[in-house]
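I am still getting used to backbone structure tokens and would like to learn alongside you. Would you supply a protein for us yourself, any chain you care to pick? Start from the sequence, derive the backbone structure tokens from it, and show both lines together. Go ahead whenever you are ready, and we will take it from there.
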Amino acid sequence: MNTQTIYLAGGCFWGLQKYFDQFNGVVGTEVGYANGPDQAPTYQAVCHDSGHAETVKVDYDPEVISLTVLLEKYFMVIDPLSVNRQGHDRGIQYRTGIYYTDPAQLPGIEAVYRAQEEKAGRKLAVELMPLQNFFSAEEYHQKYLDKNPGGYCHIPREMLHFGKKA
């Protein structure tokens, strides 16, 4: 399998992870902290403005689901105009961002990004940049909404099940 990876920040990472886990072609997800100082933070540090964004690492099989489709799905569950806020979550760790490690992905990312800007009619608040760093979040955050089905999520519950894997 030819697996590729994209890093997506979209508010609280609990819901974003559960959201992407439902799609065929997504072969793995991991929540963590990205694009802050080059030092592994704790969740408490992230909540106190360490500069990292709550981010989901998405490993996918491009022969099953394209990066374009993944990004279109991403934009379905974020407010791309909101700065440092998604739902009731506020703070720099809740900023939105698309972070890549493979420059070959950039043209496809930019095409989706431009289409979303045209749709919004103005500049997006979504960061678009290479991944600077990624630190895995503590184990209790991994698959959090599977472990805690009643946990808070800014993504509507029906969106967490609409693409259920067959």
Observations:
- The beta strands are 4-10, 26-34, 53-60, 85-86, 89-90, 96-100, 127-130, 134-136.
- Residues 4-160 form a domain with the Peptide Methionine Sulfoxide Reductase; Chain A fold (CATH 3.30.1060.10).
- Helices lie at 13-21, 43-47, 67-76, 106-120, 144-147.
